[in-house]
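Lay summary

Proteins are chains of building blocks that fold into shapes. Our project writes down both the chain and a compact code for its shape. Here are two examples, one after the other.
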Amino acid sequence: MKRALIAIPVLGVVAVMAGEAASTFNSRRAQDARGEAGADPNGESIGQAIVIKGEGGSAEAVERENEWILTHHPGSRKVGQALLRWIYDEIEIQLADGKTKKIYFDITECFGFPEGEGEGGEE
């Protein structure tokens, strides 16, 4: 009987700690989403990630990323891709002049999570 009484408070502490961790993660993510120095997102860093909206999953995310890249960097091509923190795509492109550049996309909403509520942890 004593074991059951001890387990209940411990579970409550774990639940509170998990809630605090999620809140801290979401606060950091919201800060990332606001961008650096309040500028419009340009995709040049996680803090400036382009938010890809929609709930179509990975196929829709890829399509929208490609559209953004072609619109903003005509003549470029993808040369690499990585998933960061389970919520950001890092796309490396080769520009028309041969230089490479990394662009960051926030893909959380494509998987049914409202902005700031993605799964996963930090790097």
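And here is the second example, written the same way.
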Amino acid sequence: MKCTKCEEEITSSNCSIREKGKWRTRCLACENKRKLEWSQKNRDKRRNSQNKYARSIGIGINHPCEECGKPTQKKGGRAFCSVKCRFMNKVEKKESGCWEWKAKLTAGGYGVWDRTKLAHRVSFEMFKESIPTKKHICHTCDIRKCVNPDHMWVGTSKENMQDAVQKNRLKPLKGENSPQAKLTWKEVKLIREKKMTGTNLSTLAQEFNCSKSNISAIINFRSWRV
């Protein structure tokens, strides 16, 4: 039997795979060549379809960076040439010099970067230096969502608290504003007026649901001072 492609005589040494007791009509060299051509043709076809889809959604084509304008490729539908550009795209620069964070904030008012990191700490490490362990990043501008590294300094927890006290940012909650308060200023005034009329401590404590020591401290101005 001769090969239908190259017309070479097919023998046991150059035959292709046997199937159901019959020899294939091509020799081993021609069969391997056919498989290689088929593989390359389908590979190019598959790659062309993938490239066509990528270009249709803007991937694989150079776009200007949304922050600095440098040519780059889109990732996730956005075009940023670096992590810094992606970070600065979420910042709004104010006349005061603060870089206010426009993205997600924590309950305390600090910016959030990549879901778990605090934006002001990331900014300090990105533009200045790494933060030592067990150190805090303190603001000189006292604006929590500011991420300007020039408005930050490294300090301990104690130094951070001392800075807050000096700037009068830690105002203790007193009177009825305290979460532990059981009375209001109106009730405190009423307690002092009733004591002036001769009402004893036990009666006042029972009436206002307080201890006698608490009533005594109110009457003697040891607590609830203006």
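What can we say about the second shape? The beta strands are 62-64, 71-73, 91-93, 99-101, 112-113, 117-118, 136-139, 152-155.
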